[in-house]
């Protein structure tokens, strides 16, 4: 196995460039693919095989993933891997670079931001036939998690792990302030009141909560708690009235000093975990994926804990933290599928991978993995996921094409309201128009 550590991404590349590069490859020209059928696969898979694998993550994820792939090679000696990994920033840019050079990885990690678009543009391999003939076993996945890898009723990717949207809070700080901890099921308005109490108790040194008005995860769960959805098919699942209510909730929070300054919130909106305000000490609580707790804890001297986001936990669903997907033009589709099956259903591989990406996709494997977890933060990730499992609601369809743009537009709209550059009504109207246009492209 030859590992390629993180390198700086090439400037000037974006998701559009990636999609153009991928769909422009000769393998995809004219709708035909070389070596992707099962007859062709049999002919090319008789000798040694080298598969390229690409993912984002830190050194711990890289070490675990490479170790799991080495185990696969030990059990399948003719298969070797050429791995590449890096941080999330610039990941899709680098995938575009590889596509431009005709070197798309056989197996790669994606998230739900691009899943639907990649499937509809036939970039990823349709896995449905492999599921049907049991070569890819998704029977051990929670039903909602399996569905969340389907686009237009086709399985196009398999969850690498399961996660949930979590409220990460500073337990030590709350103890020092002698205030109660936030709890799962706390109504949103009660949460805002709690955050204001934290700010007052700290003498204004620490704000109670991160302002999530531009966080699509929080908005989505808030909408689901009210019986709505972020999307309905290829359209927004909500209107201006709902979004205005959301923005006004956080305007109330700002007037009560429950949230920090707009500048601090914008810094945290970049998504860099090191800039999470609960880590930097600017807030008592922030919003993250549950599987990120261990990394956040490594950056904090105080004890961090997690609960579900405010509102009913039934708004959550069995959500893929990320997926394993195969390139539609791979010369070894059957082998790539077998690797995906190994990474998601094999107990030994599951123990190696641990919970760094989240709870193992297979419910059976996850029980074995949980027994071997010793890190305190990771134990909390397991406990959070286990407690939430019985409370989850039905999984929606993965976000439609244009989701990445909608996320960016929501952040921009929220920032314009926080900074006072525009009122909530104007920002809402602008967002609805721009988001609908993005989804219609």
TrEMBL record:
Annotated keywords: Sugar transport, Transport
Sequence intervals crossing the membrane: none
Superkingdom of this protein's organism: Bacteria
InterPro entries assigned: Bact_solute-bd_prot1, SBP
Pfam families linked: SBP_bac_1
Residues forming coiled coils: none
UniProt KW Coiled coil keyword: no
The name this protein goes by in its record: Multiple sugar transport system substrate-binding protein
Organism: Micromonospora kangleipakensis
